[in-house]
Structure formats: C-alpha cells, structure tokens
Specification:
By secondary structure, this protein is mainly β. It has seven helices and 27 strands.
Length: about 375
C-alpha cells in the first residue's frame, strides 16, 4: 500500500474532500509544470497488464506541441488528494505516465496514458548485445538507465539484487530481457522472472523489483460488509491453473543444467492439491483413494537460473501466481487511493465471513468516492 497517514485513511469512510491535480514534464521528470486544471482523470492500476498503471486525463489550459504536452517527450503525473475535517490536503500519487495518444480539445487536450514501462518496452536494442556476467542489479540498472535516465529504481525485500546473472545475449527486446518473455528462439528470458520477481513502475513512477505477492503477506486494509457498496461478486475459473511447476536453468552452452526442481501444492485440504508425491509417485492419489486430485504441470526454463536455490524461488513465485487465479472477487467500496495491485486485503463477503484476497486491479476515477477492485484468493500451502 502507498504511504498514507492514519488520519487520512480514517477520513476515507467519512465526508472527506477529494481534490485532484496533475503535472507535466518534458525533461524526463527533472522538473514538473502544474496543469492549470485537471477536468477529469481515470487511473487503472492492474497487476496483469503490461503497464502496471494506465489511464486517461482531460488537461485544461496547457500548451501543446514541442514546447508543451506532446506524445514524444511528455510525461504526466497524477495525484489524488484526501482532506478530512480540520486537516490539510494529503496528496497520494496516482501514477507517472507517458502520453500514448493526444486529442486536441478547445481548451487543452484529452490524453491516453501509459506507465513508464512503455518507455522501456519501446526502447528496443538496435542490434543484439552480449551482457554479463554480473549481478542482477548491475545489469538491470544499466539496461533501465539507458531507457529512463535519472528514474529511481527500488529493490524490495524478498528480491536478491546480488544474484549472479551469467553471460548471455539480448536479441532486441529490452523489456523482455528485464521483466520476462521469450527471445526469438523461444527461450524464456527476463532478469526479474529469473529472480521470482515482478518488475513494474509504481504509482510514484519508481521502477520496482518486487517479490510475487502471496496471501501470507500482511493485510493492509479490511473491507467490512457494510463498507462494500455492492454485494461482492464471486467467481471461480480453472483458466491458468498450474499446481506443479518444474523449473530448470539451461544456458544452452553445453554447461551442466540446473534442475529441474519441482514445486507443487501439497495441502490435502486444498482444491488444487497435487498429491503427496506427484513426481516420485504420481499414482499415489489413485492408490490412496484421492480421486479428486488432478496434476496440472508446467515447465519453466531460463538461461539466467544458475543454482537450485534460485530455481526453487522461481518455482514458488510461479506457483503462487498460478494457484491464486482460481477464486476471484469483484467488490465496489469506498475509494482508497493508497491501494496497489498486489496488496492483501480482507473482505467480509457475507456477514461474519471474512476472506483474504490479493488485489489484481483497483481502477478509480480521480475525485470519486468509490472504486471497484478485482481480487483473487486460494487456500493452499507451498512445498518444494
């Protein structure tokens, strides 16, 4: 959750004022110019999107063109204010963006906005480049700084920036080499993925390496049944379900491969239970009468995984993601601009029945008193 004072958080459920503002910059964020009037804006924080933050805004009284707001050099940052009784306005960042599309209006411009990840995604390499060996931090920060100089980079607890990354070749896709994807040969890539981490630009525009969120993370907000303005809508799906991951490291250079190691859901009380020993003894569920057990396995191989411990970290992270999609919740409640994708909340889905959920998306209109969140949950333990 974004930093927000207890007083401001308490004011959210009351008669708080919610002012909004915006600023723009053409020098990479070294200096910012206030927008005279932000007529309207919507932000869409979403952990499953390529850009963690996206949105739209109606900017009034701004210059346009090379010396004003444009689609080539301009960055825009938005803020949501909270002002309770007898307190000054507390400003909460609502994303730092590049202008993806601009429509001139009579008094300014309507803009479509994408997070700073878009700058890195578009900064492809003109020719293949050999990088490493070096630490994950050294290589990642070099690649990011080339696309976004002066932008701060954060490594959150749970991600080891000193992890060694072997020598390898980046074909052209800078973002795939940093976050995760595949190269032209179909080989998995990504420094963050090889650390079992996410890479994204947060609400303040900081490029962040963060561990994959799990339901064991601290709860940052509780939504009582009466605070949800619309009864929560619950859904279940088997799409994307994986309850056993085989993870290995193989650089394809003839050196001994790492793994594979196996990580699975071993909780007999879980609906996604993969069995007591799905690798060594895959017929155990049938022998023990566990007819409901189904193994849904996937493999992940990366040239950047160099040891067994790292492979287990990646497996645990992937399992946390692939089990958590099984039960989702859509809830409309009081707007909390401090919530971020990946935060853990508790929701009272029925009177007296509380569920712990991870927020996947939490879009809202700046100035609005309500927002709709999409969450996911699961009940499971992870073994390796």
């Amino acid at each position: 959750m974004l930093p927000i004072s207890p007083r401001a958080q308490a004011a959210l459920a009351g008669a708080a004022r919610r002012p909004i503002r915006a600023e723009w910059s053409n020098d990479g964020g070294a200096s910012w110019v206030p927008v005279p009037q932000l007529a309207a804006a919507e932000v869409r924080p979403d952990r499953t999107a390529e850009c963690r933050y996206s949105g739209t805004a109606d900017l009034i009284g701004i210059p346009l063109g090379a010396s004003g707001v444009n689609t080539v050099t301009t960055q825009v940052r938005l803020f949501q204010g909270i002002q309770g009784p007898r307190m000054d306005v507390e400003w909460v960042p609502a994303g730092v963006y590049v202008v993806d599309r601009l429509t001139r209006t009579r008094y300014g411009a309507q803009v479509d906005l994408l997070g700073r990840e878009e700058v890195v995604r578009s900064a492809k390499l003109p020719a293949p480049r050999a990088v490493g060996p070096d630490s994950a931090q050294a290589l990642a920060e070099q690649l990011l700084a080339e696309a976004l100089p002066r932008v701060p980079i954060a490594w959150l607890d749970g991600v080891d920036p000193s992890t060694p990354v072997p020598a390898h070749v980046i074909e052209e896709d800078r973002w795939a080499a940093l976050a995760g994807g595949t190269d032209t040969a179909g080989t998995d890539t990504g420094i963050a993925a090889a650390l079992g981490a996410d890479l994204y630009a947060d609400a303040a525009g900081v490029l962040t390496f963060a561990p994959i969120p799990t339901l064991d993370d601290p709860v940052v907000w509780r939504i009582p049944y009466g605070l949800a303005l619309v009864e929560p809508a619950e859904q279940e799906t088997a799409e994307g379900l994986v309850n056993l991951w085989a993870v290995s490291g193989d650089g394809g250079d003839g050196a001994p491969a790492t793994g594979p190691v196996y990580v699975w859901d071993d909780d007999p009380a879980s609906i996604t239970y993969a069995g007591p020993a799905p690798v060594a003894d895959p017929l155990a569920p049938q022998r023990e009468g566990l007819s409901g057990v189904r193994i849904r396995a996937e493999r992940y191989t990366s040239a950047l995984i160099t040891n067994v411990g790292q492979a287990y970290d990646v497996g645990r992270a992937r399992l946390a993601d692939s089990l958590g999609v099984q039960a989702s919740l859509s809830v409309t409640s009081v707007c909390h601009p401090g919530l971020e994708p990946g935060d853990v909340v508790e929701v009272e889905v029925r009177p007296g029945e509380w569920q712990r959920h991870i927020i996947d998306s939490c879009p809202y209109t700046l100035g609005s008193a309500t927002q709709s969140c999409t969450t996911r949950t699961t009940t499971r333990r992870v073994t390796s």
